[in-house]
Protein backbone atom coordinates (compact mmCIF):
# COMPACT_ATOMS: atom_id res chain seq x y z
CA UNK A 1 0.00 0.00 0.00
CA UNK A 2 2.84 2.31 0.94
CA UNK A 3 4.48 1.79 -2.46
CA UNK A 4 1.21 2.51 -4.22
CA UNK A 5 0.80 5.72 -2.23
CA UNK A 6 4.36 6.78 -3.12
CA UNK A 7 3.79 6.12 -6.82
CA UNK A 8 0.46 7.91 -6.75
CA UNK A 9 1.99 10.92 -4.97
CA UNK A 10 4.90 11.00 -7.39
CA UNK A 11 2.61 10.89 -10.40
CA UNK A 12 0.45 13.65 -8.95
CA UNK A 13 3.47 15.85 -8.32
CA UNK A 14 4.79 15.10 -11.80
CA UNK A 15 1.48 16.04 -13.39
CA UNK A 16 1.36 19.22 -11.33
CA UNK A 17 4.85 20.19 -12.44
CA UNK A 18 3.97 19.47 -16.06
CA UNK A 19 0.84 21.61 -15.79
CA UNK A 20 2.87 24.44 -14.26
CA UNK A 21 5.45 24.25 -17.05
CA UNK A 22 2.74 24.02 -19.70
CA UNK A 23 1.04 27.06 -18.20
CA UNK A 24 4.32 28.97 -18.11
CA UNK A 25 5.14 28.08 -21.71
CA UNK A 26 1.59 28.96 -22.69
CA UNK A 27 1.98 32.43 -21.16
CA UNK A 28 5.43 32.82 -22.73
CA UNK A 29 4.01 32.00 -26.16
CA UNK A 30 1.05 34.37 -25.75
CA UNK A 31 3.34 37.24 -24.65
CA UNK A 32 5.76 36.47 -27.48
CA UNK A 33 2.97 36.37 -30.08
CA UNK A 34 1.40 39.57 -28.75
CA UNK A 35 4.74 41.40 -28.93
CA UNK A 36 5.36 40.16 -32.48
CA UNK A 37 1.86 41.17 -33.58
CA UNK A 38 2.37 44.73 -32.35
CA UNK A 39 5.72 44.97 -34.15
CA UNK A 40 4.41 43.47 -37.40
CA UNK A 41 1.29 45.65 -37.52
CA UNK A 42 3.31 48.81 -36.81
CA UNK A 43 5.78 48.13 -39.63
CA UNK A 44 4.20 48.63 -43.07
CA UNK A 45 6.86 46.97 -45.21
CA UNK A 46 7.83 43.70 -43.57
CA UNK A 47 7.62 40.04 -44.48
CA UNK A 48 7.98 38.80 -40.91
CA UNK A 49 5.62 36.11 -39.65
CA UNK A 50 4.69 34.99 -36.15
CA UNK A 51 6.75 32.33 -34.39
CA UNK A 52 6.44 30.49 -31.08
CA UNK A 53 8.93 30.12 -28.22
CA UNK A 54 7.93 26.55 -27.47
CA UNK A 55 5.94 24.27 -29.73
CA UNK A 56 2.41 23.73 -28.47
CA UNK A 57 -0.21 22.19 -30.71
CA UNK A 58 -3.07 24.58 -30.01
CA UNK A 59 -0.79 27.63 -30.04
CA UNK A 60 0.81 26.40 -33.26
CA UNK A 61 -2.59 26.16 -34.96
CA UNK A 62 -3.46 29.67 -33.73
CA UNK A 63 -0.17 31.04 -35.09
CA UNK A 64 -0.77 29.40 -38.48
CA UNK A 65 -4.21 30.99 -38.73
CA UNK A 66 -2.84 34.38 -37.67
CA UNK A 67 -0.03 34.13 -40.24
CA UNK A 68 -2.62 33.40 -42.95
CA UNK A 69 -4.56 36.47 -41.81
CA UNK A 70 -1.39 38.58 -41.83
CA UNK A 71 -0.68 37.40 -45.37
CA UNK A 72 -4.19 38.38 -46.48
CA UNK A 73 -3.82 41.80 -44.85
CA UNK A 74 -0.52 42.37 -46.64
CA UNK A 75 -2.05 41.42 -49.98
CA UNK A 76 -4.97 43.76 -49.29
CA UNK A 77 -2.56 46.59 -48.48
CA UNK A 78 -0.68 45.98 -51.72
CA UNK A 79 -3.92 45.96 -53.73
CA UNK A 80 -5.19 49.13 -52.03
CA UNK A 81 -1.86 50.84 -52.62
CA UNK A 82 -1.92 49.83 -56.28
CA UNK A 83 -5.54 50.94 -56.65
CA UNK A 84 -4.80 54.29 -55.04
CA UNK A 85 -1.82 54.79 -57.34
CA UNK A 86 -3.87 53.85 -60.38
CA UNK A 87 -6.71 56.09 -59.22
CA UNK A 88 -4.39 59.08 -58.83
CA UNK A 89 -2.89 58.37 -62.24
CA UNK A 90 -6.36 58.04 -63.74
CA UNK A 91 -7.45 61.39 -62.30
CA UNK A 92 -4.27 63.00 -63.62
CA UNK A 93 -4.77 61.49 -67.07
CA UNK A 94 -8.45 62.36 -67.26
CA UNK A 95 -7.79 65.91 -66.09
CA UNK A 96 -5.16 66.28 -68.79
CA UNK A 97 -7.41 64.74 -71.43
CA UNK A 98 -10.27 67.09 -70.60
CA UNK A 99 -8.12 70.19 -70.13
CA UNK A 100 -6.34 69.87 -73.47
CA UNK A 101 -9.36 70.17 -75.81
CA UNK A 102 -11.02 72.73 -73.53
CA UNK A 103 -7.90 74.90 -73.54
CA UNK A 104 -7.64 74.62 -77.32
CA UNK A 105 -11.31 75.49 -77.77
CA UNK A 106 -10.96 78.45 -75.42
CA UNK A 107 -8.04 79.76 -77.46
CA UNK A 108 -10.02 79.59 -80.69
CA UNK A 109 -13.03 81.26 -79.04
CA UNK A 110 -10.77 84.19 -78.15
CA UNK A 111 -9.48 84.29 -81.72
CA UNK A 112 -13.08 84.44 -83.00
CA UNK A 113 -13.53 87.62 -80.97
CA UNK A 114 -10.87 89.33 -83.05
CA UNK A 115 -11.08 90.51 -86.65
CA UNK A 116 -10.99 87.32 -88.71
CA UNK A 117 -11.97 86.50 -92.25
CA UNK A 118 -15.00 84.40 -93.06
CA UNK A 119 -12.72 81.52 -94.01
CA UNK A 120 -10.85 81.75 -90.71
CA UNK A 121 -14.15 82.03 -88.83
CA UNK A 122 -15.44 78.78 -90.32
CA UNK A 123 -12.10 77.04 -89.69
CA UNK A 124 -11.93 78.12 -86.04
CA UNK A 125 -15.57 77.24 -85.47
CA UNK A 126 -15.02 73.74 -86.89
CA UNK A 127 -12.07 73.23 -84.53
CA UNK A 128 -14.11 74.40 -81.54
CA UNK A 129 -16.93 72.01 -82.40
CA UNK A 130 -14.49 69.15 -82.87
CA UNK A 131 -12.92 69.82 -79.44
CA UNK A 132 -16.38 70.07 -77.90
CA UNK A 133 -17.31 66.70 -79.36
CA UNK A 134 -14.05 65.25 -78.05
CA UNK A 135 -14.86 66.37 -74.51
CA UNK A 136 -18.31 64.83 -74.86
CA UNK A 137 -16.80 61.48 -75.90
CA UNK A 138 -14.30 61.54 -73.03
CA UNK A 139 -17.01 62.33 -70.47
CA UNK A 140 -19.26 59.57 -71.85
CA UNK A 141 -16.43 57.05 -71.52
CA UNK A 142 -15.69 58.17 -67.97
CA UNK A 143 -19.37 58.09 -66.97
CA UNK A 144 -19.91 54.64 -68.45
CA UNK A 145 -16.78 53.25 -66.81
CA UNK A 146 -17.92 54.53 -63.40
CA UNK A 147 -21.35 52.91 -63.93
CA UNK A 148 -19.73 49.59 -64.88
CA UNK A 149 -17.37 49.66 -61.89
CA UNK A 150 -20.19 50.49 -59.47
CA UNK A 151 -22.43 47.76 -60.90
CA UNK A 152 -25.03 50.39 -61.72
CA UNK A 153 -25.61 49.08 -65.22
CA UNK A 154 -27.26 45.95 -66.54
CA UNK A 155 -27.32 44.41 -70.00
CA UNK A 156 -30.01 42.45 -71.75
CA UNK A 157 -29.41 38.99 -73.12
CA UNK A 158 -31.76 38.85 -76.09
CA UNK A 159 -31.24 37.74 -79.71
CA UNK A 160 -29.64 40.51 -81.79
CA UNK A 161 -27.95 40.70 -85.19
CA UNK A 162 -24.35 41.61 -84.37
CA UNK A 163 -23.54 42.09 -88.06
CA UNK A 164 -26.15 44.83 -88.35
CA UNK A 165 -24.80 46.45 -85.18
CA UNK A 166 -21.29 46.48 -86.66
CA UNK A 167 -22.51 47.99 -89.95
CA UNK A 168 -24.43 50.71 -88.10
CA UNK A 169 -21.41 51.48 -85.93
CA UNK A 170 -19.08 51.66 -88.94
CA UNK A 171 -21.47 54.16 -90.54
CA UNK A 172 -21.09 56.39 -87.49
CA UNK A 173 -17.34 56.68 -88.16
CA UNK A 174 -17.52 57.11 -91.94
CA UNK A 175 -16.51 60.79 -91.76
CA UNK A 176 -13.58 59.99 -89.47
CA UNK A 177 -12.15 57.47 -91.92
CA UNK A 178 -12.84 59.87 -94.79
CA UNK A 179 -10.88 62.66 -93.06
CA UNK A 180 -7.94 60.30 -92.64
CA UNK A 181 -8.12 59.40 -96.32
CA UNK A 182 -8.75 55.79 -95.44
CA UNK A 183 -11.41 53.40 -96.70
CA UNK A 184 -11.67 50.32 -94.47
CA UNK A 185 -11.80 46.83 -95.92
CA UNK A 186 -14.86 45.06 -94.57
CA UNK A 187 -15.56 41.32 -94.81
CA UNK A 188 -19.00 40.24 -93.60
CA UNK A 189 -20.95 37.00 -93.96
CA UNK A 190 -24.11 37.13 -96.03
CA UNK A 191 -26.44 35.85 -93.34
CA UNK A 192 -27.24 37.64 -90.04
CA UNK A 193 -24.94 36.99 -87.08
CA UNK A 194 -27.39 36.30 -84.28
CA UNK A 195 -25.98 36.39 -80.76
CA UNK A 196 -27.46 36.58 -77.27
CA UNK A 197 -26.68 40.09 -76.10
CA UNK A 198 -27.56 43.75 -75.68
CA UNK A 199 -27.61 45.89 -78.82
CA UNK A 200 -26.41 49.08 -77.14
CA UNK A 201 -23.72 47.20 -75.24
CA UNK A 202 -22.38 45.55 -78.41
CA UNK A 203 -22.49 48.90 -80.19
CA UNK A 204 -20.42 50.40 -77.36
CA UNK A 205 -17.84 47.64 -77.72
CA UNK A 206 -17.52 48.16 -81.47
CA UNK A 207 -17.57 51.94 -81.13
CA UNK A 208 -14.79 52.02 -78.55
CA UNK A 209 -12.59 49.74 -80.64
CA UNK A 210 -13.20 51.74 -83.84
CA UNK A 211 -12.51 54.98 -82.01
CA UNK A 212 -9.26 53.53 -80.69
CA UNK A 213 -8.31 52.39 -84.21
CA UNK A 214 -8.98 55.84 -85.69
CA UNK A 215 -7.02 57.64 -82.97
CA UNK A 216 -4.03 55.29 -82.82
CA UNK A 217 -4.06 53.46 -86.16
CA UNK A 218 -1.84 54.27 -89.13
CA UNK A 219 -4.15 53.01 -91.88
CA UNK A 220 -4.70 49.60 -93.39
CA UNK A 221 -8.04 49.24 -91.62
CA UNK A 222 -9.70 45.87 -91.99
CA UNK A 223 -12.82 44.70 -90.16
CA UNK A 224 -14.30 41.24 -90.55
CA UNK A 225 -16.59 38.66 -89.00
CA UNK A 226 -15.64 35.00 -88.93
CA UNK A 227 -18.09 32.27 -87.94
CA UNK A 228 -16.75 29.55 -85.67
CA UNK A 229 -18.52 26.44 -84.36
CA UNK A 230 -20.32 28.08 -81.45
CA UNK A 231 -19.47 31.74 -81.80
CA UNK A 232 -18.76 34.69 -84.06
CA UNK A 233 -15.32 36.28 -84.08
CA UNK A 234 -15.14 40.01 -84.81
CA UNK A 235 -11.66 41.18 -85.82
CA UNK A 236 -10.54 44.81 -86.05
CA UNK A 237 -7.11 45.33 -87.61
CA UNK A 238 -4.97 48.30 -88.57
CA UNK A 239 -1.37 49.24 -89.18
CA UNK A 240 0.33 50.34 -86.00
CA UNK A 241 3.60 51.45 -84.50
CA UNK A 242 5.64 48.56 -83.05
CA UNK A 243 4.09 47.04 -79.94
CA UNK A 244 5.78 45.00 -77.24
CA UNK A 245 4.44 42.07 -75.28
CA UNK A 246 3.88 44.43 -72.34
CA UNK A 247 1.77 46.73 -74.54
CA UNK A 248 -0.47 43.79 -75.46
CA UNK A 249 -0.65 42.53 -71.87
CA UNK A 250 -1.77 45.88 -70.48
CA UNK A 251 -3.71 47.36 -73.37
CA UNK A 252 -7.09 46.56 -71.78
CA UNK A 253 -6.07 47.87 -68.37
CA UNK A 254 -7.69 51.02 -66.97
CA UNK A 255 -6.15 54.26 -68.25
CA UNK A 256 -3.35 52.43 -70.08
CA UNK A 257 -2.20 54.16 -73.22
CA UNK A 258 0.80 53.47 -75.37
CA UNK A 259 0.99 57.18 -76.14
CA UNK A 260 2.99 58.37 -73.14
CA UNK A 261 2.68 62.03 -74.11
CA UNK A 262 -1.12 61.58 -73.99
CA UNK A 263 -1.73 63.79 -77.01
CA UNK A 264 -4.07 61.34 -78.73
CA UNK A 265 -7.32 62.64 -77.18
CA UNK A 266 -8.14 59.48 -75.24
CA UNK A 267 -8.65 58.55 -71.60
CA UNK A 268 -7.37 55.02 -72.10
CA UNK A 269 -10.76 53.80 -70.84
CA UNK A 270 -12.25 52.79 -74.19
CA UNK A 271 -10.71 49.33 -74.44
CA UNK A 272 -11.18 48.73 -70.72
CA UNK A 273 -14.91 49.36 -71.15
CA UNK A 274 -14.95 47.08 -74.20
CA UNK A 275 -13.35 44.29 -72.17
CA UNK A 276 -15.74 44.70 -69.25
CA UNK A 277 -18.85 44.68 -71.44
CA UNK A 278 -17.57 41.71 -73.44
CA UNK A 279 -17.19 39.77 -70.20
CA UNK A 280 -20.74 40.68 -69.19
CA UNK A 281 -21.95 39.21 -72.49
CA UNK A 282 -20.06 35.94 -71.85
CA UNK A 283 -17.53 36.75 -74.57
CA UNK A 284 -13.77 37.12 -74.72
CA UNK A 285 -11.51 39.81 -76.14
CA UNK A 286 -7.79 39.74 -76.95
CA UNK A 287 -5.17 41.84 -78.72
CA UNK A 288 -2.33 40.77 -80.98
CA UNK A 289 0.44 42.34 -83.05
CA UNK A 290 1.99 40.72 -86.09
CA UNK A 291 4.11 42.12 -88.89
CA UNK A 292 3.20 45.76 -88.26
CA UNK A 293 -0.52 45.10 -87.84
CA UNK A 294 -2.40 45.45 -84.57
CA UNK A 295 -5.60 43.44 -84.14
CA UNK A 296 -8.37 43.11 -81.58
CA UNK A 297 -10.52 40.00 -81.74
CA UNK A 298 -13.83 39.60 -79.95
CA UNK A 299 -15.53 36.24 -79.56
CA UNK A 300 -19.27 36.33 -78.82
CA UNK A 301 -21.36 33.15 -78.44
CA UNK A 302 -23.95 32.64 -81.15
CA UNK A 303 -27.41 31.27 -80.70
UniProtKB/TrEMBL annotation:
Keyword Membrane: yes
Membrane-spanning intervals of the chain: 6-25
Keywords carried by this UniProt record: Kinase, Membrane, Phosphoprotein, Transferase, Transmembrane, Transmembrane helix, Two-component regulatory system
GO MF assignments: phosphorelay sensor kinase activity
Domain Histidine kinase span(s) in chain numbering: 93-303
Enzyme Commission code: 2.7.13.3
Protein name in UniProt: histidine kinase
Amino acid sequence: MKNIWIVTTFLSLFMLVMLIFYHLYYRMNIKHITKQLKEIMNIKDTNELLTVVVKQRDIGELVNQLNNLIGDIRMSRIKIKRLNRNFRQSITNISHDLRTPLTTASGYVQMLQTNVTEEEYQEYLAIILERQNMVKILLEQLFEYVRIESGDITYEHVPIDAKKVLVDTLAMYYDDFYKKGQEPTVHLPEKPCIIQGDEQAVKRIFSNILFNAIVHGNGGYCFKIHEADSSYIFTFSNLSEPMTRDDLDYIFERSYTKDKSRNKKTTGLGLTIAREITGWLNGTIEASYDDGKFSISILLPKI
